[in-house]
Every structure is written in structure tokens, then in C-alpha cells.
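Recall that a protein's primary structure is simply its ordered list of amino acids. Everything else, from secondary elements to tertiary packing, is in principle encoded there. The following example makes that idea concrete.
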Amino acid sequence: MINLNDKQERLLLIERYLDADTTVQEERMLAEYYATHTIDSDEEQIAELIKMSHSVADTVMMADTADFDRITVRRKPVSMVLKWSAAAAAAIVVLLVCLHIGKPSLPEETTCTISTAQILEGMEMLSKIQVGEIGSIVAEPQGDQVIITVKLTNGKERSYSMTGDVYGSSLSFTALN
């Protein structure tokens, strides 16, 4: 249980409130605390904000929000998405390193004009728009373009041709299948 009489705990809860990471019950506790206690000068503005958004009369009349919080607050899937995104980014970096090790450089006239950073950017953009879970993404430079192949875990495969403009400031994608 949070002890709002302890200023450090109260400030931590206020920080979570400003990050929109508090439950309705915690916000109600803050509103009741500020409505019934003397407010320190460094907390006057936040106290007014909290009191405006959660009046004590409203908090008394509100029904129990435990079920609502249980249904709407879903942090676990977000952490799973972040873990999978980090794993996918690491796999892309390893893939790009593997693509460049031991390969002879292309002749001058067929050298790819797209940088490694742009290839990574293109792979990231494609990973965000794919429908379905991505198994792997492969980038294969070919002349002045890069062929990016996305393999989904359901077995489907999609390929895109990525080209850059003369100045290297924009990328274009063409779906190949």
C-alpha cells in the first residue's frame, strides 16, 4: 500500500500519474489526499490538476474499478512485443554482418548505392507493415537495388525491390510478389 504521507512515495506516484501509468484507484487516492491535507508549495500545481480531474465527490460515487483495470490494463503483451522487436532487430544486425563478411566487392558499375543504414531502415519499415509474425528478413544487394525478402512464420514469403534516389535521401519499394 502506498503511504501518501511519505513525500517520496507521493512524488513517485505523481511521476507515474504524469506518465499515465496509474490506476483509477491510485488517482483517487491522490485526489483524496490533496483534498484533505495541506499542500506543499512545490506540489500546488499538480494538486490542482489532480483535484480538477478527480473530485472527491466523484471518487466516492464511482463504482469499484478493479474489474475495469483488470480488463483494460494489459502490460504483459506490450513487454512481449518489445522483446520480439529487440530480438528481430538483433537478428537483422547479425544478418547484415553475415551478408558483408567474405563477399567480394562488386565492380564499380554495379555497386549498390544504398547504404547499410538505409537497408536497415527499409527492413524496419517493412517489418512494421507486415501482417503476421515475421520469421526472418533477408536483404540481398543486387546492383543499384536491394531485394528484401520477408518470410512469415505461416510459410508465406514476400519480396520487395528497394531503390534509392540519386541523392540518397529517399527510398522506394516495389512489391515483387
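Residues 76-100 form the longest helix (25 residues). The first strand starts at residue 134 and ends at 142.
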